Amino acid sequence: MYPTSAQADVFDPTMKKIALIGCTGSIGRQVCEVVRSHKTEFCFSALVAGSDRAGLDALKEEFRPKAAYLAAEIPSHSALFADCDVAFIASGGFAGLKYTLAAIENGKTVALANKESLVCGGELVMRAAKESGADIVPVDSEHSALFQCLGMRRDAPYKKLILTASGGPFLHLGDGELKRVTAADALRHPTWKMGAKITIDSATLLNKGYEVIEAKWLYGADFSQIQAVVHPESIVHSIVLFEDGAMLAQLGYPDMKLPIQLALTYPARLPCCHEVDLAEIGTLHFERLPEERFPCFGLAVAAGKEGGTAPTVLNGAAETAVHAFLQGRISFLKIAETIEEVLSRIPAERADGYGTLSRADARAREEARRLIDE
Ligand code: MG
Questions:
Q1: Predicted structure pTM score
Q2: What mean pLDDT comes out for the span 45-55?
Q3: Which domains does the chain have, with CATH numbers?
């Protein structure tokens, strides 16, 4: 911890205090950039890093939060959020869910960049938010775009939510070529700069399947009301179709700083990113999502429809398989095969609490490791 009562005095009561979980990851570093750009608006009450002690120490020195921990050294998840105005959950994977639940139980506004919190724990998270009155503000660029198109309300009426997908680096490759792609190929995302796991999930389109599930929970949508289309330029971040046929879209350069900042300032907008020059871009394209060549998308949506622990099992298998792919231990196509096989071996149960999800996650990882080691 980084305790001193003297440091508590540097906080201006008009500043928004942020507890940032996952401060040294890709999103966390960009949250720090946003705070750096608006030092009179924001400060950190707490910083939590996964395992990068040097990175955490440097941020502690720069931002002087009241508390700073490595994830394994946190004495109480709930206490992390005692002092904050916004809990920014930017850590990756299933591990993010326990922070999201703790922040919600404390009734805090949650800026949610951890998509697994909704993919795996959507039912628990939304129920807990309803009970505590906590507000959940989306940070994923597509869901931030939908939020903006809906007038920054999550209860606004709509007919359809249309998520855009860059399609990743392998959009037009056939099965023969997909069999041979490497982690290095997959990490070369054409438009977005992101962490390794989500970049691979973009290449398999698992990420877009996750975003369908996120949209379902955030906006109370039926799966039939959510569509994903490929938009290779990543300028249109998502679209809402209304009852009368009108469509509203949000456009901007692919830069996570905008959704990150908006989650902290909404409904206000502060200067952030440079403007899109449409004349310079010229043409924007849209095409059908090639679900048949990227089975991870359909697997995720099917697990989302099944509900209960199914999405947690899917995610546990996916985290394990992607890790093995990044290490060069399995092929790109084996990621989807592993997920599918693990889902077929572990029947879904009711998601009646965090303990049930945590056990399903552990079992899925174990099954996936067994398959990978075979
Ligand atoms: Mg996204």
A1: 0.94
A2: 97
A3: 5-138 (3.40.50.720), 142-167+205-289 (no CATH)
